[in-house]
């Protein structure tokens, strides 16, 4: 392998060789923790705090997050770990040599959405910080700061990612400190306001206790399912399953619920989840400066990981395969920058629906991947088939699409929406006992197995017969 | 007519197909942690949260 090819391997969607997969457990855990801990934790916590008290909300959210993390890791993890590929490429055995564009679009929409939100938060935090430090002359609104800061943040992300995965790793070694600042903020709120926190009642709790509790779990699961989009690009840098399992579950799965507790506590006690707003109330201007710096750092670290994952995912498109890395980065960052600069407030207002969308799409996708890898392929993947776009390729199915995967994905989404309307939170059937994500994942996986055995295997498609 | 893959990719695929460059799947120890952290502990937390509230 030429040195040039080796050095640029982490900027392509090609499989990484073992010699290039040098991240150990700590390096992976730090990168994942930096990526996971961001402002969305407060928003997720806020949603849970509408329905549950601090104790129940924290436990339900933690349990849901760990379950969601497990689903994501079992879905994309094995293929990414074994062959050094990222999440989108890992869907080709199920969706086909052309059908993978559907998971790719889900990834792109998810990452653009989340990162737009994070960079808007970053820009708002910076604007508040400058105001607090007296950077604006009296009488000026500073309204241009948010779009300008978003633009600058996108530029910084671009510069860091010119180095590929090593840029993600280097920046996360510094930014991981914000996770500990977040825990300090949680301690601060809990220690200062414990009696109020214990006595606080959730504002939108329904009379049905089980429904409230299940909704806390569901929010945890669906939020963590969004990590499907990120996880492949990170874990492919580690060489083995045993290097990945604990760092993912603890490095990525645990910081989110821990930092979400800040949001739960904030919304219950102070009716606002964003610590940059309430920390000034609790500790004065100095604490506010610390909180705003924390929010800015946290969101920046996550945006870097997100843009990297999305850029690698885009490399699967043949038209983008050969483009210089900096062009791919620009293509990935541009939508994020446009949302953050042009429609930040509109996007903010629609966040709830967006969060719900994540669960609707990713739960069935995880179910299908898990069922395919463990139940149908018995852990055997044709790595050449993943890159073979010809009609005779292992994963060509029918014209490059596997209709069974599309049906299973569609029905899984329908099951989710029937159980829990993601916009109105109106629920039906066994939602209060089962959540919506878990049945959606199960139904999709089950249907995928049954329909594949009935139609795909007898037709000799999808590389099942060659095992 | 099979579509030719880029030489660098072809080289990588050949190495993977020979099994030299394939990473290891989850082993027994990994499964222990996955089940503990992803199923047993969440299950215990849910029971505690429900019954202790």
Question: Outline of this structure?
Answer:
The complex is a heterodimer of chains A (467) and B (53). Chain A is 72% helix and 0% strand.
How would you describe this structure to a colleague?
- Chain A has 23 helices and no strands.
- Chain A is mainly α.
- In chain A, helix 21 runs antiparallel to helix 23 (437-456).
- In chain B, 66% of the residues lie in helices and 0% in strands.
- Chain B contains 2 helices and no strands.
- The model of chain B has no long low-confidence stretch (mean pLDDT 90).
- The A-B interface holds A 1-2, 5, 14-15, 17-19, 21, 53, 55-56, 58-60, 62-64, 66-67, 69-70, 73-74, 77-78, 81-84, 213, 217, 238-242, 244-246, 249-250, 253, 379, 383-384, 387-390, 392 and B 2-3, 5, 8-9, 11-13, 15-17, 20-27, 29-31, 33-34, 37-39, 41-43, 45-46, 48-50, 52-53.
List keywords for this structure.
heterodimer; A: 467 residues; mainly alpha; 72% helix; globular; B: 53 residues; elongated
- How many beta-strand segments of chain B? 0
Helix content of chain A: over 70%
Could you give the distance between the termini of chain A? 29 Å
**Helix content, binned percent of chain B:** 55-70%
- Structural class of the helix and strand makeup of chain A? mainly alpha
């Amino acid at each position: 392998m030429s040195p040039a090819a080796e050095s640029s391997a982490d900027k392509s969607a090609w499989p990484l060789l073992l010699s290039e997969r040098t991240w150990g457990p700590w390096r992976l855990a730090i990168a994942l923790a930096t990526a996971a801990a961001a402002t969305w934790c407060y928003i997720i916590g806020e949603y849970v705090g509408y329905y549950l008290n601090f104790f129940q909300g924290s436990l339900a959210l933690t349990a849901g997050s760990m379950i969601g993390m497990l689903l994501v890791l079992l879905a994309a993890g094995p293929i990414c770990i074994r062959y050094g590929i990222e999440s989108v490429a890992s869907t080709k055995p199920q969706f086909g040599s052309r059908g993978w564009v559907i998971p790719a679009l889900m990834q792109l929409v998810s990452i653009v959405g989340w990162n737009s939100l994070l960079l808007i938060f970053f820009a708002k935090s910076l604007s508040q910080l400058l105001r607090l430090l007296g950077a604006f002359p009296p009488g000026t609104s500073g309204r241009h700061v948010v779009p300008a800061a978003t633009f600058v943040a996108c530029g910084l992300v671009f510069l860091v990612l010119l180095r590929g995965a090593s840029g993600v790793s280097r920046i996360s070694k510094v930014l991981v400190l914000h996770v500990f600042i977040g825990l300090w903020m949680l301690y601060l709120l809990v220690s200062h306001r414990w009696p109020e926190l214990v006595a606080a009642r959730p504002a939108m709790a329904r009379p049905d206790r089980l429904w409230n509790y299940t909704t806390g779990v569901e929010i945890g699961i669906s939020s963590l399912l969004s990590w499907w989009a990120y996880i492949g690009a990170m874990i492919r840098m580690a060489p083995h399953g045993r290097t990945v399992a604990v760092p993912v579950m603890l490095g990525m799965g645990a910081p989110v619920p821990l930092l979400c507790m800040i949001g739960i506590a904030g919304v219950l006690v102070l009716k606002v989840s964003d610590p940059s707003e309430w920390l000034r109330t609790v500790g004065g201007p100095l604490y506010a400066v610390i909180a705003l710096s924390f929010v800015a750092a946290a969101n920046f670290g996550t945006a870097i990981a997100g843009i990297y994952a999305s850029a690698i995912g885009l490399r699967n498109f043949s038209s983008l395969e050969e483009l210089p890395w900096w062009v791919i980065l620009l293509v990935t960052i541009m939508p994020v920058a446009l949302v953050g600069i042009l429609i930040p407030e509109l996007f903010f207002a629609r966040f709830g629906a967006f969060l719900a969308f994540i669960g609707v799409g990713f739960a069935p996708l995880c179910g299908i991947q898990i069922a395919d890898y463990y139940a149908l392929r018995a852990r055997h993947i044709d790595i050449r088939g993943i890159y073979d776009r010809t009609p005779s390729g292992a994963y060509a199915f029918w014209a490059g699409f596997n209709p069974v995967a599309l049906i299973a994905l569609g029905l899984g989404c329908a099951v989710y929406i029937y159980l829990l309307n993601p916009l109105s939170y109106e629920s039906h059937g066994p939602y209060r006992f089962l959540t919506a994500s878990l049945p959606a994942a199960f139904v999709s996986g089950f249907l995928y197995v049954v329909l594949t055995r009935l139609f795909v295997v007898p037709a000799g498609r999808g590389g099942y017969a060659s095992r | 007519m099979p579509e030719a893959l880029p030489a660098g990719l072809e080289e990588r695929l050949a190495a993977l197909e020979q099994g030299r460059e394939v990473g290891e799947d989850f082993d027994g120890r990994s499964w222990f942690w996955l089940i503990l952290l992803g199923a047993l502990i969440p299950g215990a937390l849910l029971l505690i949260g429900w019954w202790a509230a």
